């Protein structure tokens, strides 16, 4: 085991976007109306949401145009409600756009958004913290990494809906997981355990890996690698792992699909971990 290092994902955004455009160009008209694991969103709504995020990125990080919130944001759940409202407004307005227009706009905006993120100095403070990972501040590498997880998991929602192959190759999946497990210290913040207690999370396959959540004197830390003598283990296939962490699988269903070892009570909070902004009560 070793301390988890920064994950630099900026070079992955442009090729990931190429995969998205290739996917969207190949969809039939009916595919755009298919339901997804993203709640009430159809394929077209997920694509529109990706476009919204990329347009916001250009406005904020390239053009220094940041519209202030129109209501006070006093904490995590206030922020979630604000973002949910913005997302709903955009997806409603996007109903007037055809699939071809959505795809053409994404093909135009995506590369510019990827280049804008790549130009951010990785270790300077980010304008926005990654709230699901905890803490009030993040460096740019983590903010860009969060955007990678957004681009990846929303594309996966589309792929899942239309039966397209998943992005489970190591170049895509390992960075996704390495960023996603940084939610675990926040997830376990209220869990008491003896110092040195270790939960190993392993994702199978060539693109997977293992991480150990270790209890320190008063907090939990994520380390890279497994442990020879963990107190609990969770082994997941890649499909279960991403759907669990990205709010696309009920915690009970995710737990039933996992292989658990050791202290199952210690393992239980993992299935409420969400590497995405959802209301606190929804992540349990």
Structure report:
- Residues 14-158 form the Mycothiol-dependent maleylpyruvate isomerase metal-binding domain.
- It comes from Rubrivirga marina.
- The chain has two domains: 2-167, Four Helix Bundle (Hemerythrin (Met), subunit A); 182-283, 2-Layer Sandwich (Nonspecific Lipid-transfer Protein, Chain A), CATH 3.30.1050.
- It is built from ten helices and six strands.
- The chain has helices at residues 10-25, 43-62, 76-93, 99-118, 140-162, 170-180, 184-187, 238-245, 251-257, 264-267, and strands spanning 2-3, 198-203, 209-215, 220-224, 232-236, 259-262.
- The chain has a six-stranded mixed sheet.
Average of pLDDT: 94
Report the β-strand fraction as a percent range: 5-15%
Give the helix proportion (percent range). Answer: 40-55%
* Order of helical and strand elements: EHHHHHHHEEEEHHEH
Q: How many discrete domains?
A: 2
Strand order, sheet with most strands: 1-4-3-2-5-6
Termini separation comes to: 28 Å
Largest sheet: 6 strands, mixed
What's the assembly state of these chains? single chain
Task: Provide a count of the helices.
Answer: 10
CATH class of the largest domain: Mainly Alpha
Radius of gyration: 19 Å
The CATH topology of the largest domain, please? Four Helix Bundle (Hemerythrin (Met), subunit A)
- Catalogue the unreliable spans: none
- Using the alpha-carbon principal axes, give the shape: globular
The total strand number stands at 6
Which second-level CATH architecture of the largest domain applies?
Up-down Bundle
CATH superfamily of the largest domain: dinb family like domain
Structural class category:
alpha+beta
GO molecular function: metal ion binding
Pfam families: MDMPI_N
InterPro entries: DinB/YfiT-like (IPR034660), Maleyloyr_isom (IPR017517), MDMPI_metal-binding (IPR024344)
Protein name: Mycothiol-dependent maleylpyruvate isomerase metal-binding domain-containing protein
């Amino acid at each position: 085991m070793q301390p988890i290092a920064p994950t630099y994902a900026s070079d992955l955004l442009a090729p990931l976007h190429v995969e998205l455009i290739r996917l969207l160009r190949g969809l039939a008209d009916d595919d755009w109306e298919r339901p997804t694991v993203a709640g009430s969103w159809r394929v077209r709504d997920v694509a529109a949401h990706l476009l919204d995020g990329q347009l916001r990125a250009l406005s904020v990080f390239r053009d220094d145009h940041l519209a202030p919130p129109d209501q006070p944001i006093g904490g995590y759940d206030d922020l979630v409600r604000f973002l949910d409202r913005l997302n709903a407004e955009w997806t409603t307005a996007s109903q007037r756009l055809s699939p071809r227009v959505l795809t053409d706009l994404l093909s135009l905006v995506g590369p510019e958004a990827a280049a804008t993120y790549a130009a951010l100095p990785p270790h300077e403070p980010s304008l926005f913290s990654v709230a699901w990972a905890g803490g009030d501040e993040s460096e740019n590498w983590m903010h860009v990494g969060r955007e990678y997880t957004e681009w990846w998991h929303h594309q996966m929602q589309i792929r899942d809906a239309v039966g397209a192959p998943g992005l489970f190759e190591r170049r895509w999946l390992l960075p996704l997981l390495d960023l996603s497990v940084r939610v675990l210290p926040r997830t376990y913040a209220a869990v008491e355990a003896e110092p040195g207690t270790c939960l190993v999370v392993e994702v199978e396959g060539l693109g997977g890996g293992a991480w150990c959540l270790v209890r320190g004197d008063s907090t939990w830390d994520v380390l890279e690698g497994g442990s020879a003598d963990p107190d609990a283990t969770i082994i997941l296939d890649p499909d279960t792992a991403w759907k669990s962490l990205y709010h696309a699988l009920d915690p009970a269903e995710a737990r039933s699909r996992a292989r658990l070892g050791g202290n199952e009570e210690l393992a239980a909070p993992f299935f409420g971990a969400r590497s995405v902004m959802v209301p606190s009560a929804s992540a349990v």
